[in-house]
Amino acid sequence: MKLGTLSKEGQPHLGIVLGDKVLDLTELGRARPASCGLLAGAIDVSPLWSLPARSLVDSICKRVPEYGLPQDWEGFCEAADACTWLPPVAAPEKIICIGLNYRDHAAESKMEIPKEPVIFNKYNNALSPWKRPSPASGATP
User: Fold this and answer.
1) Of 33, 128, 38, 27, whose CA–CA distance to 87 is shortest?
2) All structural domains of the chain with their residue ranges
3) Which CATH architecture has domain 2-86?
4) Residue 103 burial (CB < 10 Å; 0-12/13-18/19+)?
5) What is the pLDDT of residues 33-92, one digit of tens each?
6) Which of 21, 84, 122, 130, CA to CA, is 20 to 30 A from 3?
């Protein structure tokens, strides 16, 4: 399952990648409130912390490969490479990271294997959309 936040007309929407398409779950939730209304207000992956919303997305992920995309959902899809991606979480309160938490990571960093994983934080200005450099890195896309 590949989930992400995409920009639609300047507004964030939750989407799920289905092969070469992205299904806009926010629009699907607005258009189908009886079955998918839990996702109507989704602006990022945050609603998926609730079990009902997570179960709904899981069922969509299982249904589509098995039965195909329902015909009346086609209007909620767009080409994945045409999407404008945003960071997956709109405004996290904090980002806690674990570094050097496996041997290969330490080896590729040419650092000693620590006795305990390194814990550090990042600020939300370090968030970046898929396939884009972090704004905090100073790199340009």
Assistant:
1) 128
2) 2-86, 95-137
3) Roll (2.30)
4) exposed
5) 999 999 999 988 888 889 999 999 999 989 988 899 999 999 999 999 999 999 888 888
6) 122
